[in-house]
Amino acid sequence: MPNQKILYITTEMYPYQEDTNMAAVVNKMALKMHNEGNDVRVFMPRFGQISERKFQLHEVIRLSGMNIIINDLDQPLIIKVASLPGERLQVYFIDNEEYFKRKQYYVDDEGNPFEDNDERAIFFARGVIETIKKLNWVPDVIHLNGWMASFVPIYLKTYYESDTYFKDAKIVLSLYNEKEAALDKKIDEKLKFDNISGLKALDNPSIKSFVIESMNYVNMVVKGDEFLDEDLDKAFNETSTPKSEYLDLDSINQLY
Predict the structure, then answer these.
(1) CATH number 3.40.50.2000 given to 5-255
(2) Which tens digits make up the pLDDT trace of 153-179?
(3) Quick one: angle between helices 230-238 and 207-214, nearest 10?
(4) What is the pLDDT at residue 1?
(5) How far is CA 253 from CA 4, 80, 192, in A?
(6) Cα atoms found within 13 Å of the Cα of residue 84, Cβ hemisphere only
(7) How far is 47 from 22, CA to CA, in rounded Å?
(8) For residues 159 and 181, what is the distance between their CA atoms, to the nearest angstrom?
(9) 255 and 242 in contact (C-beta within 8 Å)?
């Protein structure tokens, strides 16, 4: 079914990240949908390892310049864009000096999770939502990949609940076996600042607990990895949200 507007929100995508299942799957899904005549956009964080020169990223001045308030602090939102190498598919990068310049993804050189991972996820989620609105582009399908993306449906169904912009969009969440890490205990205060409270994930905030929480805020949950770890698999089996086992690429179309 061509001519759909499909938004991929992801933390990984080949070739910006290599050697992970998520990066490969997102690349293949986005390209397949693009080549079948759909209007596809991809949003991801501009992590410090992504070479701006190699991948020809450039800032989109008309989209940049917004500030997002995280925990009572103004953080400037910078939007960069590139075409997927060799393709006419646009990838947008959410950037911010404070959150995404560092060379590691989620842990420091000693393997300790960054204390601000929660703020980085909030900034990413809100940055994507605000940028889509500024683009004046209304997606039919929003497909989430990676733990940071799981904050998007939580925000859409709480903080942005009275905003009708995304009201008709269907949200798909793909589950992957990502490395677990605790999130800052003060995340409840930061979310409360945005009038978000009462989440079960706040009992023990972590990467996994927020992915599991987000299952309650989407239209469909899909296995992104064929075999999920025990906690994710249990949550997948118990969720009342419509769900699908691992899909090959040809079946993604039918899902949408």
Answers:
(1) yes
(2) 999 999 999 999 999 999 999 999 999
(3) 20
(4) 56
(5) 10, 28, 38
(6) 23
(7) 16
(8) 25
(9) no
Tokens 């929660």 belong to 118
d(CA 41, CA 9): 9
The CA–CA distances, whole Å, from 45 to 16, 168, 254 equal 10, 25, 28
CA distance 76 to 6: 26
pTM of the model: 0.96
Q: Provide φ and ψ at 14, rounded to 5°.
A: -70, 140
Question: Which residue's structure tokens are 């929100």?
Answer: 9
Give the number of other CB atoms < 10 A from CB of residue 10: 26
Q: Backbone phi, then psi, for 167, in 5-degree steps?
A: -60, -30
Q: Kind and range of the H or E element at 26?
A: helix 21-35
d(CA 61, CA 122) in angstroms, rounded, equals: 22
Give the DSSP letter of residue 190: H
Q: Are 75 and 96 contacting, i.e. CB atoms less than 8 angstroms apart?
A: yes
Q: H-type helices in 77-186, by residue range?
A: 97-100, 117-135, 151-156
In single-letter form, the type of residue at position 161 comes to E
Q: What residues does 9 pair with on adjacent strands? A: 43, 144
The three-point CA angle 213-169-76 to 5° equals: 70
Cα(183)–Cα(202) distance, rounded to whole angstroms?
9
